[in-house]
Amino acid sequence: MTSKILLLSFYYPPDLSAGSFRAGALVKALREELGLNVEIEIITTQPNRYHSFTANAVSVERSENLTIRRIQIPAHRSGIRDQTWAFACFAINTLKLTHGKRYDLVFSTSSRLMTASLGALVSKLSRCGLYLDIRDIFVDTVRDLLPSRWGRLAASIFSPLERWTINTAVRVNLISPGFLPYFATRYPGRSFAFYTNGVDELFIKSPPAPLASLPTSSQTRLKIVYAGNIGAGQGLHRIIPELAQRLGDTAEFHLIGAGSALSTLMRTLEDAGISNVRISTPMKRDQLLRVYQEADVLFLHLNNQKAFRRVLPSKLFEYAATNKPIWGGLSGYANRFAKKRIKNVALFSPCDADGAITVLKGLKLQNTPRLDFVTEFSRTTIKKQMAKDIIKVSKRKKASPFKV
């Protein structure tokens, strides 16, 4: 019997985001596991993750047992007002597209709670099960990112919504085991799945490039690369200017990405007259891979806030697969995970420039094979396991007749 699955994801290939890559890999795994016994409908947006990156994608894409519907949302940057309006457009159109339809399961992957809550509403209207993939703790994050008074107010508003959303789901996956203390406290007695991010085939199959030798003169600088979002959560504006200034004669930074804190970072660099930092717009992953291969060190950083002590950045998996040295400002679960699992990684406390420079001196500038890590955290393997879990839930929660 054919299972009908609706997948909601604000981002989906060819968009550039961790959520996009994750959703794409899951759909591939579901189709491989179920073959002709599944009908998947994906509702997502036209590529919009970065204002500076555009990619062409058809509004409705059909292939065997798969339909992708991409909603055109208003152009936006990273402001709260812009993002609220963009999501409202996505939500309204999703409800229109799903009205009166029957599904066996709604799968919703969400980093900011709202797509998860939208999935909960659609599953209620369709009278079917809901499988949630939680990529961030929005209530925790909003409390830290907004000014104290407004953060508490926002958390008090979204906390009941989170509770309703989680309680609606028949299965909840937490992308980071670091989320468990929060969810176990708020939802005692509930079990959770832990299908993390992983290493994509693109990075597994790419051969490691030769690594440059330690710089011996001011003409040979250490090439340090960061790729990803440049927002408040990453806090690059609080660490890169000082590092670049202090390492001016020995290192050059190449930052690839965009985000809400980019203008602040650029202004700080300009005001300080820093010239050894180059910033590029987001690029496709095959291009990014070439930049990684030319780098000496890969850099990673999360801001010094409580909410980020629980997360497990997808970039860690990507970096680890390159065999390059990793230099990162991480705390909490991500710090413990990297220390235990990844070889040749130098970690410091977020926003601590002194600590960063100290640990950089101990980093080995050499390729470090991480085959065990890459094998264990292959995204293909993880997604196959997750697909099997989704199929089990789908079979238990067949849709009942839709009633208006």
Quickly describe the structure.
The chain is an alpha/beta fold and 404 residues long. It has helices at 18-34, 80-98, 114-126, 138-145, 148-168, 180-186, 201-205, 240-246, 262-271, 285-294, 314-321, 332-341, 353-360, 371-376, 379-396, and strands at residues 3-9, 38-45, 60-63, 66-71, 105-110, 129-134, 171-174, 222-227, 251-256, 277-280, 297-301, 326-329, 345-348.
Topology summary:
Layout: E1 3-9, H1 18-34, E2 38-45, E3 60-63, E4 66-71, H2 80-98, E5 105-110, H3 114-126, E6 129-134, H4 138-145, H5 148-168, E7 171-174, H6 180-186, H7 201-205, E8 222-227, H8 240-246, E9 251-256, H9 262-271, E10 277-280, H10 285-294, E11 297-301, H11 314-321, E12 326-329, H12 332-341, E13 345-348, H13 353-360, H14 371-376, H15 379-396
Parallel strand pairs: 1-2, 1-5, 2-4, 5-6, 6-7, 8-9, 8-11, 9-10, 11-12, 12-13
Antiparallel strand pairs: 3-4
Helix pairs in contact: 1-15, 2-3, 3-5, 4-5
Protein name: Glycosyltransferase family 4 protein
Organism: Pseudomonas capeferrum
Quick tags:
404 residues, alpha/beta, Rossmann fold, globular, disordered C terminus
Number of domains: 2
Percent of residues in beta strands? 15-25%
Q: What is the terminal separation in angstroms?
A: 25 Å
> What name does CATH use for the topology of the largest domain?
Rossmann fold
Strand order of the largest sheet: 3-4-2-1-5-6-7
Task: Explain what this protein looks like in three dimensions.
With 404 residues, the chain is α/β, with parallel strands linked by helices. It folds into two domains: 3-198 and 378-396, Glycogen Phosphorylase B (Rossmann fold); 201-376, Glycogen Phosphorylase B (Rossmann fold, 3-Layer(aba) Sandwich), CATH 3.40.50. 41% of the residues lie in helices and 17% in strands. It is built from 15 helices and 13 strands. Strands 3-4-2-1-5-6-7 form a seven-stranded mixed β-sheet, with helices on both faces. A six-stranded parallel β-sheet has the order 10-9-8-11-12-13, with helices on both faces. Helix 1 (18-34) packs across helix 15, helix 2 (80-98) runs parallel beside helix 3 (114-126) and helix 4 runs antiparallel to helix 5 (148-168). It is globular and about 65 Å long. The relative contact order is 0.13. Mean pLDDT is 91; it is low at 399-404.
